[in-house]
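hi!! sorry for the late reply, been swamped w classes. u asked for the two structures so here they r. pasted raw, havent cleaned anything up. first the sequence of the first protein and right below it the tokens
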Amino acid sequence: MEKKDISRRSFLKLFGAGTVATAAVACTGSSKEAKQAADEYRQQVEPPIGKMTYRTNLKGEKVSLLGYGMMRLPTKADDPNEYDQEMINRQVDYAIEHGMNYFDTSPAYCRGLSERCTGIALSRHKRSEYFVATKLSNFDPRSQSREASIAMYRNSMKELQVDYIDYYLLHAIGGGGMDNLHQRYLDNGMLDFLMKEREAGRIRNLGFSYHGDIEVFDYLLQHHDEYKWDFVQIELNYLDWDFANEINKSNTDARYLYAELQKRGIPAVIMEPLLGGRLANLPQYLVNELKQRDPERSVASWAFRYAGTPQGVLTVLSGMTYMEHLKDNLLTYCPLQPLSEEEMEYLHTDIANKIFGLENIPCNDCKYCMPCPYGVDIPGIFVHYNKCKNEGILPREVGDADYRKHRRQFLISLDRSVERQRQADHCIGCGQCVPHCPQGIRIPRELQKLDKLIEQLKQQSDTF
């Protein structure tokens, strides 16, 4: 292919305020030069084939260090409520071609359609070319009986078009504490059932994903000799390393979680390496700081390198909606250039300390709170607020020189990001979303605060 004039360095300099993927997708309102740069970047910068970094699981199998999280699948341009299976197939094909072999889904993702979409895409490939991970997502009390939970497990195989599951997880243990663990997995005999399925070979690796009460995490590890966990999925990134509990008392610092797994030789699967995109969309002054260290790398790549550097990490999951996300992450892991000890320390002290001081709403855009029965776009509202705060365009004091400009920017961009009928003023405070939030956000309270802020901004005249 004929080389273009623009280099990766030039493109990244042009889009220094965020990730390559974000910039390329968001350039609709940018200059003609920016649009051209994005188009040329897509054509020129291709991840190398045959360079993926692999880690070895407890059975001696090689697992790609980059794992595909199938929770934010692309939708059709003309109908955002319909998933674009053709694009999903293309992206899965591209991922496998570039050495990715770990695909993570759940019955709870994408309005219950993720397993089906994933199964269609993967079934077009040899079964030996991929590992598929899914979960017993029996959050609803109606799905927590032994019969209903077994039915969910078996339906996952049907949707995924497989006769065994490579990695099976107890989903999001810790939420609701020990009582919830007993109700979902212990008292109904489901954990015993899944262990027998592992013995029979229908589950190849058994583990759990953790959010919430540390007592539950500790209990399951204390019984490791009995359960023999093959892997555990934890949230790990350079902000959560020391600040997860400080940001949200219901969470646990990744430093502790990782150390406990290392003590027992249990491989760690990493979720939220970008904290739902928060570590890819940093304030400009932090972007500049990272760019001074390495102009060639996207902001997101720092977080992905951080998550992939520890040797106890088996794979790092990323929900890659767009091909640009996939390509940029593949560039980071094909192959991985591990961070030095100095770089690791720099991220989880210097940069993390500055991010912690921003006091954002700790939303990871996981969408577990959705759908809202009243149509509120909860993650869309929180993501927009955090983005405006990080970019310094959140309106503050009326007397500020830029107040009027920021007020206008905030309100216009809110309407562009979130439909009017889905904004915070439509929340009635029912609280149905609260138990589903892995971050323990008091969602109705935060929405009410934002609604009050938005209403105040709307009431103020443009003529002061």
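now the second protein. again sequence first, tokens right under
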Amino acid sequence: MKIGNLFKRDNRQVEHRIFSCFIHDDVEILGQVFHGLQDIQAHVEMSQSVGSSCKPSKREPSKMGKVHVGELWMSYPCFDSSDFLYENRTYQNYILRKHPITFEDMERLRKLPSGMNAQRLSPSVPEDMLPMVYYVGDGDTMMVAI
């Protein structure tokens, strides 16, 4: 066996394209241009908290488009009374679909393995769960996987 063939993959799979961008950047997902994270948030039609045992809540998006958005979020931890009064940041995971978001879509998102800070987006996310967007709730960058 030649050393060159030792690491050769005959059936190489296409890997997800994961990148980070400024939260105000235009991002094209499924043929629709979103004008930053706020625009993605404006298209959310179903939302659920990570720890909630209730069904996801349906929302009337403030913007309509050809792409449908579901959101799975978790509040930042609170350690004292000041945190409870003033902490309003959340970790946010978004799934984007060409069809309306279903309870099943949200359940699959909720059941994905969670990384640090409730992050569901990772290289191991199944292809049929993409595209996804993750925002850590603080800072000026978001992660996008297509």
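hope this helps!! also noticed smth abt the second:
The helical segments are 3-6, 37-42, 81-86, 103-111.
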